[in-house]
Task: structure prediction
Amino acid sequence: GEDVEQSLFLSVREGDSSVINCTYTDSSSTYLYWYKQEPGAGLQLLTYIFSNMDMKQDQRLTVLLNKKDKHLSLRIADTQTGDSAIYFCGEIYNQGGKLIFGQGTELSVKP
Amino acid sequence: DAGVTQSPTHLIKTRGQQVTLRCSPKSGHDTVSWYQQALGQGPQFIFQYYEEEERQRGNFPDRFSGHQFPNYSSELNVNALLLGDSALYLCASSSIGFDYGYTFGSGTRLTVV
Result:
């Protein structure tokens, strides 16, 4: 089945690390994604990871993938107020096919 | 390099009417997907077009239809609008076979009254 789940809210202090978690059900996923959505805007691709990788680092962002547990996480180091947004986890269901999203995690960064 | 462009940005329609939303993909992309994002929810896949054909479809009724033109741009049509169709409609473009390249537009906010 196709299902992606995320916790709905996360609140952190500026300068701390944020960790946003996601679980998915489709073991045949090829790519997994993290998108950011600011109020009134579309989705901005932050990073992606191929399903045969365990980790990917891109500046302040670290993605960890545990295929056995079907668990994906996004760590944002040195979180800034500009990181406040909704973060969506997504998976491709069949290569080249539809992108399935979770409900989104609202990240609130307090100064 | 222009990204994905969608028009209009906002639209208000009356229940029962029909609406057409437009999308121009990012330069170099040949595949267009449409998503519906209700308030407080994640985007839901409507359908995907490639080579002017509907390639995949999500769980949406036949009132939702689309088209892709030879220049890769696309339209989403919704007939017999319901109040529940009020949402942000997002277009995403990609290049077939490159699953890491989904680029989203800013969306069209549709309000049905």
Q: What stands out?
A: Chain A has a mean pLDDT of 90. The longest strand of chain A covers residues 85-93. The two ends of chain A are 40 Å apart (CA to CA). Residues 50 and 81 of chain A are 29 Å apart (CA to CA).
